[in-house]
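Carbonic anhydrase
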Amino acid sequence: MAIVSSIMSTSVDPSSSRICVPHNTEKIFGNNAKSKPTYPRFCTSSRRDAKLRLAVSSSRVPSKLIHEEKHMTSPKKGHDVFEEIKHRFLTFKKDKYMENLERFQSLAKSQSPKFMVVACADSRVCPSAILGFQPGEAFTVRNIANIVPTYESGPSETKAALEFAVNSVQVENILVVGHSRCGGIRALMTMDDDETEEDIDSRSFIKNWVVVGKTARSTSKSAASGLSFDQQCQHCEKESVNCSLRNLLSYPWIEERVKNRTLSIHGGYYDFTECTFEKWTVDYQERSCGESKISVKDRSIWK
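Structure:
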């Protein structure tokens, strides 16, 4: 089945380090970042081979957050770092677990989350913290650069998590969350253009993992060629989310559920420098000729 797609538009402002999102566009990637908005292109063939602003000043940061940040300073020499973690656990038990005992006892027997979240392992982008997921609400897997490999690739913990979440837990939504200043994406973008999987040192676990997103790298280097390296990385952070969304549809049991409208897949982008979150949903439409068209719907920016 051939898949033709176009998803959500973004543009890169050459005068700043921010990625700007036009409000009245439908496509998501283009080719000339110098003269017009840059659109992350999202395409696949019959074999499924590829293809935000809130200025926060310190005076506006809630006092509670300031207090928590002060509380998180590095412990003094000789201090047991687990004392703080123990205090947090006991606070959770008293204020959350015991106050919602019936709910947690129910979760002890089974889980039925509506969401599966694929997010980066970066310590600054915990999905439960930024999106408010509570225990039992989101089945989560985190890896370097929030990458989803293709179905045809070898085994991985991300693929195992997808299989369990979709086939056993039967989640109704999969959300892939990218983020600003991603180290994994930066590692991907610093790889040589002609470097292949065979060229990578087998001892470099990071490179062997992020090379899965090489299509996002090449597209970003082409679309944002006139911009700085940092801006190219920002472009790739969103492009890689779309590549992961494309790769999700290479799993037959995911594509079947998306086709039957029992599963929805979504992209997200968290910019922690501006504290904004961009979200979009993949719209999958079957055509009579046996092809499928993928576009975006319900795009929004929370700021």
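The longest strand covers residues 276-286.
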